[in-house]
Amino acid sequence: METMKAVVKFDNVAGATEIREVPVPDIGDEDVLVRVEYIGVCGTDPHMHKNLVSFKMNVPLIFGHEFAGVVEKAGSKVRGYKEGDRVTAETHADYCGECELCRTNRYHLCRERKGFGFHTDGAFAKYVKVPARILHRVPDNISLKEASLTEPLCVAYKSVVCNSSVNPGDTVVVIGPGPIGMLCVKMAQLCGASEIIVIGTEGDEERLKMALSYGATMSVNSSREDAAQIIKSMGDGYGADLVIDTAGVSPTLALSLEAVRPGGQITKIGWGPKPVGFTLDTIISKSVTLKGHFSHTWDVWEKCLVLLSKQQVDLKPLITHELPIDQWEKSFELIESKEAMKVVLTPID
């Protein structure tokens, strides 16, 4: 039996993660075996390691849902992909394909959905089994390192372009200058927003500087300045047309409600497992749309790969560190300390 080294979360308790020798996955007729080249470390991964998430993981479980690689082997019923093809893949490792949600291109919300690195084995390893239906070909002018970050770009695209309303002349606020926040800035810029304000906190100084070079027109450190008052002092004084909350915690939702203009929209991407702890009546009094956003779909992946191939989005500046997967713990520390913007890992033998 052929084996590989993988980063495995082996129990639903804090710290229960280690490098293990595990079998190389067997594939079915409609799957491919992808030889992983690069894996992106998501901000959720350290939270899962510390068991700070609001969902149970199907342990033991290999981490990793952002990746790109090369087709090593294709199942007998796979069409359109062959050994040697450069690919990336959606996070939806499984879904039923039959329910109303699946039939209306909302399969990312299917009750039977299982995500890589959350419910089924992911890509913190040398190989990963991927259903051919969620594969996407990487254009020749995009490196596999860059392609491994297609997934967070798709989150930003789906949340801003598909699930929010951004028009030329609009003021957009992005809370949280992490990778998703940075990519939401880029999407808002491509949609024509005239003011794009990024809000961070203490420790985000370098990230806020990067946001200004990535498309933001203003950055605000909310630990030192009154972000809501600054936003409401701009333009007509009513606040932002759209607030995108990539942080997700209770204080950022409160800030969103204060900063958004009457009739505006808050798009909440970030998770916040703790109770909110304050009234939501502002949603009513300001007639605000509060919209949750989760994940992405096949069409969004294709659009994002076009953006990358046409060089309308450059992911390279976001990649600040590259490490082998046996240094996964260091990668988590770099993310949590905000020393890194984005870490990519590489498999080991």
UniProtKB/TrEMBL annotation:
Give the coiled coil ranges. Answer: none
Record's keyword annotation contains Oxidoreductase: yes
| Cofactor(s) for this UniProt protein | Zn(2+)
GO molecular function annotation: oxidoreductase activity; zinc ion binding
Name a Pfam family for this protein.
ADH_N
Which segments constitute the Enoyl reductase (ER) domain?
15-345
**Which keywords does this Swiss-Prot/TrEMBL entry list?**
Metal-binding, Oxidoreductase, Zinc
Q: SUPFAM superfamilies attached here? A: GroES-like, NAD(P)-binding Rossmann-fold domains
Q: Which domain of life is it from?
A: Bacteria
Query: Which family is annotated?
Result: Belongs to the zinc-containing alcohol dehydrogenase family.
Instruction: Output this protein's name.
Output: Alcohol dehydrogenase/L-iditol 2-dehydrogenase
